Amino acid sequence: MSDNLQAAQLRRDIITMEDIIQRIGGYPDSKNRKKIVELINRICVHQVTDRSTPEDIDNGQFRYGIQPNDVKEEVLVKFMY
User: Fold this and answer.
1) 78 vs 81, more confident
2) Residue in 58, 53, 55, 48 with CA at minimum distance from that of residue 21
3) Could you tell me the pTM of the whole model?
4) For labelling alongside 3, which of 13, 26, 37, 59 has CA 20 to 30 A away?
5) Per-residue pLDDT tens for 12-47?
6) Burial of 43 (0-12, 13-18, 19+ CB in 10 A)
7) What is the pLDDT of residue 26?
8) What residues are paired with 50 via a beta bridge?
9) CB 48 within 8 A of CB 72
10) 34 near 20, Cβ under 8 Å?
């Protein structure tokens, strides 16, 4: 796969993740966090994992990791009260 194609797929996946998270809405509990990851992995090219730590959650932040072949990306979502 060319670098340009991989970069385009990664950007598309990140936008898709943001859309899914916004559609779920609100501060995600453990059930919704699982649903978010399932929806992302059903739609996105790259495998996504929930990398949130208890400290992240206490701060209203959630980390979703994307791991293409040679690039590791992470999306940080911060919920505001």
Assistant:
1) 78
2) 48
3) 0.63
4) 37
5) 887 887 787 778 766 677 787 888 888 888 887 778
6) middle
7) 65
8) 64
9) no
10) no
